[in-house]
# Entry
Amino acid sequence: MLTERHYTMKKSLIAAVLFTLFSLPALAAQQTVTLSVPGMTCSACPITVKAALKRVDGVSAVDVRYEERDATVTYDDEKTSVEALTQATTNAGYPSTLKQPQAKQE
# Structure
């Protein structure tokens, strides 16, 4: 026969399991990368690049800068990858690569 204490422990365990299951999506890591997009030749190009990147599942934010010829993308790394992002810009006619951070000048 279950005692009050066993019943309370069982409820607590069930609650902990449910909490963990519903918290898993929150554990997905948001990543931010900057892509070099050298093929942007006019001020209208960023519109196309941004639209292509926003269509990628898992992308939550896109900032495209024409002057720097780059795009900064925030995405869920469980839903997409850098390769998928560069493929999206390439498919839109603007090949891109991961922009490497510049070394600090001393």
